[in-house]
Amino acid sequence: MMKPKSIAAAFASWFVIISLLCSCISGDQNETNYEGLSYNYYEKTCPRLDEIVRSSISPMFALDPTAPAALLRLMFHDCQVQGCDASILIEPSGDQQFTELDSAKNFGIRKRELIGSIKTSLEVECPQQVSCSDLIILVAREAVALTGGPLIAVPLGRKDSLSTPSKHVADSELPPSTADVDSILNLFAGIDMTIEESVAIMGSHSIGVTHCNNVLSRFDNENATNANMDPRFQTFLRVVCPEFSPTSKTAEATFVPNDQTSLIFDTAYYDDSIAGRGNLRIDSEIGVDPRTRPFVEAFAADQDRFFGSFSSAFVKLSSYKVLTGNNGVVRGVCDKVD
């Protein structure tokens, strides 16, 4: 029979082993695989950061329910070009005439000024601590949560870039509105996303609208137009987006909702994809491609699974090519290089 001390020692040993196993499986949220980023980065230097961000954007979301989609798109377009470095906020200066914001693929980018407004408040609370690049991520995170999606834990500590790339770089790195499954999977594989995560991040289209200039470009290719498209939905798109030139002002000013609940972050996007009601080519094709359809069906049936996969994909996207440590700066004003 084991003595009490031996029993206690055995239990202690098993506790250590179990703790180690659990840490390997779940990870410690105070650490991250993304070098230089941390889940508690501002714990001492700006402890009220989350509170200030949330209180700044909640009233604005109530006044403009389209703002969350705009802020989520702002994050994607910043991160996809040169990494998540807030370069998309910089206004051109000196002899630089055309920045990434001038790319046609950045048409409709909005709410950049909101990041600057929150930054002004933070400079009073905790001066020269919070980067504009972290703010873009935090605001996008809140945009998802405040429209019904998950509240995603994101590692922080990004630094801002000292320059903005040219429009030609943005043209080459942002996907076109005609992107198909192959190109999207290749794009997100470069950010180390699985196919499931790639399908999940497309769920960003669960909120917001698609401008008719992007819808009309789809009709230029009849094969792409007819791929998994409900004929009644095609008629609807042609009525809402008449045959103007995709570059016309009318096509740019008109739009269609991304799905049947375009103000709520939910799984309706995947229901629409299965039913052939996707606005863009990729929205339709993920519902039929054998590589992506199983995940589309899974997310349509299980919101928790979608939220989990989306959260994982969001962290990977928001940690793409980040600047940390001495490789970047904390701008005092988001639209200017100090």
From TrEMBL:
Tell me the GO BP annotations in alphabetical order: hydrogen peroxide catabolic process; response to oxidative stress
Signal peptide (UniProt feature, chain positions): 1-27
Among its keywords, does the record have Iron? yes
The entry's Ca(2+) 2-binding residues are D259, T261, D266
Main EC class the enzyme belongs to = oxidoreductase
Q: Which cell locations does it reside in? A: Secreted
Q: Which cofactor does it need?
A: Ca(2+); heme b
What sections of the sequence does the record tag as coiled-coil? Answer: none
Residues annotated as site: Transition state stabilizer: R73
Q: What does this protein do?
A: Removal of H(2)O(2), oxidation of toxic reductants, biosynthesis and degradation of lignin, suberization, auxin catabolism, response to environmental stresses such as wounding, pathogen attack and oxidative stress. These functions might be dependent on each isozyme/isoform in each plant tissue.
Protein's name according to its UniProt entry: Peroxidase
In its UniProt entry, the species of origin is given as Brassica oleracea var. oleracea
Q: What is the lineage of its organism?
A: Eukaryota, Viridiplantae, Streptophyta, Embryophyta, Tracheophyta
